[in-house]
Amino acid sequence: MNRVLGVLLLLCFLPVAAIAGGEETPAVLYRAGLESYRNARYRQAMDAFQRLLDRGYSSFDLHYNLGNAAYKNGDLGLSVLSYERARVLDPGNEDVIHNLRVVRARLRDRIDPIPLLFFLQWWNDLKTGARPETLAYWSLGFFTLFAVSAFVFFGIPQLTARRIALVMGLVFFAGSATTLIVSLQRSADIHAHRDAVVMRSEVTVRSAPDATGVESFLVHEGLKVRILESRDHHVRIRLDDGKTGWIDQSALERI
Amino acid sequence: MSFARTIPILIVLLMHQTASAQDAQFSCGVDRTEVPLGQQFQVTYTLSGGTLKQYRDFRAPDLNRSFMTIAGPSSSQQMQIINGRVSTSLSWTYVLQPRETGTFTVPAATITYDGKTLKTNTVTIKVGKAVPGASGGQKRDNTVDVDLGDNLFIRAIPSKTTVYFGEPITVVYKLYSRVAFQIDNPIKLPRMVGFWSEDIETPTRLEPRIEVHNGKQYETYLLRKVLYFPTQSGALTIDPFEIGTTVRVRKRRQTGSDVYDRFFSDPFFDSYDNVKKTLRTQTVSVTVRPLPERDKPRDFSGVVGVYDMDVTLDRAKLKANETAALKVILRGRGNIRLLDEPKVTFPSGMDHYDPTIDESVKPADGTLVGSRSFEYVLVPRYAGKVTIPPVTFSYFDLEQRKYITLASQSFPMDIAEGDERREAGDLARSSIDYLTMDVRGLRAGEVPTRAVRTGLSVGSMLLLYTIPLLLLGVALVWKKRHDTLHGDVAGMKRRRATRVAERRLRASKKFLEDGNTDAYYLEIARALWGYVQDTLSLPTSMTAIDTVVAQLAGRGLDDALVDRMRVALESVEYARFSPTRASADEMRRLYDQTREAIIQTEQSMKEKP
Fold it and tell me: pTM for this structure?
């Protein structure tokens, strides 16, 4: 009796449910997430943002907001991952840089990075300071200026103008080449997803890519690591302080 | 089966199904409703139907008012699957024993289920006279309500009945006996509400002692000595304490008049019965006076007694990232086990760990005496001078009847630069700053869109780079064509003229110094003529001095300059073809003259092109 009733009820509600499910537009879902967050229901906000991402939607704000919700919900790993993903889309955004610092202050691992030579540091800053696309446009701009200089050099007979054009042309060419190389490197890094975040609360890093390897050290949730190589579900990681070791791939989520 | 009979069955079935699916039922049942005195019966409260996860807050009634609880509650859960439907039930069972004959009610229990409070029915129990030998195999060990009078009883003797909150009461449980007895079960004290208790004496062997109570001499046995620390204020009761005993009593005379009976009822053959008897202490009422609210220190945490505090720091001078230990020892008498860790305010930039707690407490003089110590491990992270502020601890002094706050001295620490690099410290400091901050708010910008891969491909990049190159090529070609079309080849020649002339003059000067006269005249003529022809865009074949001079004049040069030019041209022509050899001075003068003419013409031409 109950079963019949249940089926009937289900039949009554099924079309409604189907419509409701189909009409859950990204805008509705997104706003529901924002609303949940504002009402301090962080778990639900996280779910809403995560579902949008799962359905293939993406934006800087979405990753940023997911990072916020995850932080408020105590999911530091997901929070760092989301902020890092947002930072790939807009590396210069101050909000995301600030929030990353706030979350990092609460992580269990405190890694002191090895100080780099100043020009390597500049190189890294240049690499991570802007999107590769932006850098590529800079490179194109420099190249255009270089072409203008070349025109002046070859087309204008005045000596002073030609001298200036020669110097400027060389500078522009160097600028164009540098930004192009940086842009291509960064683009390759992003597409290879070489950076990852530890998602488990505590993971043992071993000296070899299997369970028998000697335990080297521990890493905790939210730590960002560089992936060097991978072999049968294990990856070799390097921390910012230079330590390397093998770790189970499932403990990481690539940025 | 008639129709009239099937309908009620259907209705019952329906009701049953809906009831079990939606409503939970809560009922009370007993295994029998008529119980003879001295026998036990079971009461079961059952919650059935529904999802049992949703229940909470089962509340049993006070069954001890009319009965004695022998055992329980024991809860059990049952799950049945009938025709694919799951029905579950949860029950709480008590084993009770009546205290006296009469009619009693088993009271209702309540439970909260799905937000609603459910209440069971009540059951009426008739307690009849004790039936000797009715309870199965225990033929001889009857639990009979034998009146032992004041021959066997237990007492709870409190040290005092009016105390302050936290002030201990010693309760001595003693058994008074004038008969032979035996204790059946291990002694278990009731759990008390409003007190926290500490056994101070639990004899393993009962030792008799002679004591006179109410004019009678008893053998007394100390059963337990317990300290009760009140944790609430107001009127509290120390619940009764029960023990089961077996007492040997003389068998009653049989009513029969058999001769053998008479013979055997001779005192020599007197027979005894073992009778079970439950002994119960009286309820002790205690008045607990609250501690005064006046002057109550803010950090007071309910510690009562007499205490002193000792705080030590093992080292005051150390390097950053080394460890120091701060030890707080509290010694005294009172409810010392309730001592919480004292509040220590550590300076910022100093990591500290949860304290390790050591305790040594023993009962003495009606209270607990001992110490409790807390050891904190500290790790200063930065160099510098920091001070640990005084550690404070408050308690209520029972002797002086007032609050006392103890404070240690403060501990200045001198921390030297650690072995680690300074940058690491700076990093840690900045992350400490961020610890106090929250993340910034949401960004409620654009609704996200389907992700589009805007990856950078080398091919498209190279294509983009060809655009400026192509533009450069096109511009250069255009410039060249433009120049040709607008005859600016002449302009270029003219602009180059000075340089060519200068070069030729320099060459001629070299010939002059070498003494190569012919080459000298040739070069100086070419310099001058070349200059004039390029400047005026004349063909190289044009060598008529008059035409050249007319052209120069037509360019708007002033007459003196035109004249000078003509003189220069003529001098060169003359000198070249003159048969007489000119002196070195003349040749040098010619050179200077020609050079001057060219330079001045050039300046003049630049001024008015």
Answer: 0.41
CA B604 – CA B555 distance, rounded (Å): 10
The ipTM is 0.71
Q: How many A-B residue pairs are in contact by the CB < 8 A criterion?
A: 118
Bridge partners (DSSP) of residue A248 are A234
Taking only the tens place, the pLDDT of each residue in A208-227 is 887 777 777 888 899 999 99
Query: Hey, are the CB atoms on B444 and A183 less than 8 Å from each other?
Result: no
Measured distance CA(B372)–CA(B303) in Å, rounded: 13
Q: Which of A27, A71, A140 sits opposite B439 (nearest CB)?
A: A71
Q: What is the strand order of the sheet B41-48 is part of?
A: B25-30, B41-48, B85-98, B67-82
Q: Which segments of B83-214 are extended strands (E)? A: 85-98, 102-106, 110-113, 116-119, 123-128, 152-158, 162-164, 169-177, 181-183, 195-201, 208-213
Which residues of A are less than 8 Å from B471 in CB distance? 147
Query: Phi and psi at residue B26, in whole multiples of 5°?
Result: -130, 120
Q: What is the three-class DSSP state of B356?
A: strand
User: What single-letter amino acid sits at B601?
Assistant: T
Instruction: Give the start-end residues of each E strand in B231-263.
Output: 234-238, 242-250
CB A140 to CB B465 under 8 A? yes
Residue B260 φ/ψ region, left for φ over 0, alpha for ψ in the -120 to 50 degree band, beta for the rest: alpha
Contacts of A59 in chain B (CB under 8 A): 445-449
Q: Cis ω on the peptide bond leading into residue B73 (within 30° of 0)?
A: yes
Cα gap B72→B46, rounded to integer Å:
14
Bridge partners, residue B402, by sequence: B397
Which of B292, B293, B289, B300 has its CA nearest to residue B395? B300
